[in-house]
Amino acid sequence: MTEQLDIDEAVRYLDAHAAGHSTGHCARSIRLALAAGGLRLTQHPALARQYGDTLRTNGFSRITVTPAFVPAKGDIVVIQNYEGGNVAGHVAMYSGREWLSDFRQRDMWSGPGYREHQPSYDIYRWTQ
Length: 128
Known about the structure:
Blueprint: H1 7-17, H2 26-36, H3 51-57, E1 60-63, E2 76-79, E3 90-94, E4 99-100, H4 112-117, E5 121-126
Antiparallel strand pairs: 1-5, 2-3, 2-5, 3-4
Helix pairs in contact: 1-2
């Protein structure tokens, strides 16, 4: 049975703990934020880019991103790595105002390499 998630609590956790720059711990930050919201992942991948299956197993659904897509509070982006970039990829949650992970992001892409290469990504939304 999937636990429940309080998205407001998860966002509050990220908002309180987000650094001003990347610390290289985006996956851990998202996992801890989900735990703060009441969703404790018993198994989770080591790499951020591998979080999709874990999210789907725990009450999230991958949503279709169209040109008119507007993220909702609690949406999680899982971004794949790109050649020359961090092999781990990236994961972040939308707060309703901004994308947060281990740091406050300027946009969903989280950095110049991601903005330039725009690797594939998926957006997951809590659907339980």
